[in-house]
Target: ABC transporter extracellular-binding protein
Amino acid sequence: MANLKKVLAGSLSLCLAASMFTACGSTDSSSTSDKNGGSTSKAGDGTGINKDADRVNTAELHGVDSSEDSKKTLTIYCWNTEFKSRLDKYYPQGTSNELTYNELADGSKEIATINGVKLNWVQVENEGNAYQTKLDEALKGQQDSTEKVDMFLMEADYALKYANGDVALSIQDLGITDDDMSQMYQYTKDVATDTKTGELKGVSWQATPGLFLYNTKIAEDVLGTSDPEKVQEAVKDWDTFTATAQKMADKGYKMVSGFDDTYRCFSNNMSSPWVTDNKITVDPQIKAWADQTKEYTDKGYNNKTSLWDDAWAAGQKIDGGVFGYFFSTWGIPFTLLPNTVDEEIKADGSNAKEGNGGYGLWKACSGPQAYYWGGTWICGAIDSDNQDIVADIMKVMTCNKDVAKAITEGEQDYTNNKAAIKELIDGGYTNAFLGGQDHLALLTEAADKISLENKLSAYDQGCNEKFQGAMKDYFLGTVDSYEAALENFKKNITDLYGNLTCDF
Model:
């Protein structure tokens, strides 16, 4: 067995050297669910092939032996503190492992050790792909290092880069079963499924369906109502949405803030991936976004802002003059809430009430198309020397119904557990920030409609960013036509990914 492990480790090192982090190959196959909630790989000829029969056990792929210090340290790569805060607060509710804590200055506690293994958080800010660059370096040297990465986080836009590579442990090799994951949304599994082997390589504690969040004061002024069902009628499809945008403009309001606001609604509803067989195509949904955004810019339906800039955020004030924003679950507490209040919400929640800026004055409706945006996936690193702890964290944080329910109640996450969400809805859940609305029911409707079959590629992040960047010049008139902007996109994307060609 020891010799076998050495052979497997050598093979893995060759794979890493040959293919790791060169955008990880094309996605000419897609993952689909089998009847048991597992996954099979769908080959390019459309024939479903289950490769379980000849797969290797990723948990047995070992390189250089770990140091004693590495064995006693759980090293986790991340880009912010979101998952750490969830782990510190909710993991203790679902684990039987022995924990010790450090007390923080604000009186809260963080997990110091799990079964005597100390936690080492490596946080790299996700600016200019700095996080991926640092993670790539660590994972590329994993087999030859005595200091091991145990766990890392990834986002949907680049998930296949890691799922299709040779750096993440298969969930089944960690002992997490289809039954454990039976309450997860299938699309959250598809995001992290290796399209070559059908193996699931990451799990998420959250699902991130999106809604249209609207300013109730503007709704009352223009539409004569702020009732979610009636507002939905005014934004139920894109033709109606555009007609309402003209009504908003007639009264001096902007329908959306900027160029990027509607993008995810279109990009999540593509009929084919950005890249197939190393060829880039522009899906009709992406072209439709560009056409719509140009029209909205020319007619004054938006403020010509870009995602995350100061002017974009300013529109979220209750008197900011922007009717609505498309946000998925995380966008409500992390972005809209802090941007709309006048006074930062206190730890005790005493000022979380109407009268504090726009608190309680926003509501949600489904909008013109179901979509999702973002999310974070937890991956175990191949050759981790603490796989038992990695598996327990994944199982507790993503499969435990009571933990999922607590996270939704405490953090406003829409957790990736259908049973937990249903219990909350049946129990009369309301969101005070949204004026007492039960938006979980709307999110559930949206989540049930999300399908990512044949829509993902390992190049999604670069394609999305470069296309939006090129089109911004078109919207602003810096280039005089869509075709000219498309040529700029073609140059920029092939400069970024030298192995790709453009099929347009």
